[in-house]
């Protein structure tokens, strides 16, 4: 039976940790993995509706390093759902490729691909979730803090797709996760509910607040993202006003643990969601985090695309 990675909810705690640990091994043994070519002959179809630096490069380089081939489709190449239906695209690619990675506007596009394909589908980003980013994020936390369980993590800013996936992963892994957002910019309500259920089972906790200092109090990790993601650029001016007191700056970081790390999925706008002195300061791990997109996604592709799936 084929497996997909459309949402963090598609994997359990054990598999999540397996991917993180495998990613760490692949990072240390890069040349060994390249020499063995575990995905030799495998082809990943990469469908993009949105521009990308990290997602495109890390998937394309990642499958190449594993011995396979990534084929990039720009937005105009397919015009998903316009020139051809999602269902027909999934059925065609299932005859040619070994896996599909889709970076889309609507989450329904990714779920539609998964429902109609016979090969694994990976969510490279949708309006609801960004699960591959969270794999890299949690690999970074694991490397820097030596654990995931009981880590105190604050997400300060927009309750967007990154925040949604982080809620689910934090609940799954037993973390103390706090979200601080302006009123009207909260995470998805169904995802909050699911995350709290997961946290109840794992021993973690989920806190939703409108107070960034409360969220940052004593945390091990502070995380933020741009205030106006792709698809919300027309709201940029309005959002700057709403988020003005949610900038991650020295004042906010003074609330955190002395050994905190700062994370951001990038791209960042210095002087908006984060001050330059924080993102370029000694606690920032944003480029370690970006590097780990490569290793975490390699581990994920191996999990989904190598050999017969059980």
Could you state the order of secondary-structure elements as H and E?
HHEHEHHEHEHEHEHEHEHHEHH
The name of the CATH topology of the largest domain is: Rossmann fold
- Percent helix, as a range, is 40-55%
> What is the CATH class name of the largest domain?
Alpha Beta
Secondary-structure arrangement, i.e. CATH architecture of the largest domain: 3-Layer(aba) Sandwich
Radius of gyration: 19 Å
Poorly predicted tracts of residues:
none
Strand content: 5-15%
Biggest sheet, spatial arrangement of strands: 7-6-5-8-9
* DSSP summary: helix tally: 14
Summed over residues and divided by their number, the pLDDT gives a mean of 96
Structural class: alpha/beta
Could you describe the largest sheet, including whether it forms a barrel? 5 strands, parallel
So what's the overall shape? globular
Beta strands, count:
9
CATH superfamily of the largest domain, please?
Aspartate/ornithine carbamoyltransferase
Distance between the termini: 6 Å
How many independent structural domains? 2
Q: Could you explain the architecture of this structure?
A:
With 310 residues, the chain is α/β, with parallel strands linked by helices. Helix content is 46%, strand content 14%. The protein has a 5-stranded parallel beta sheet with strand order 7-6-5-8-9. A 4-stranded parallel beta sheet has the order 2-1-3-4, sandwiched between helices. It is globular, with a radius of gyration of 19 Å. The protein starts with 12 loop residues before the first helix and ends in a 5-residue tail after the last helix. The mean pLDDT is 96.
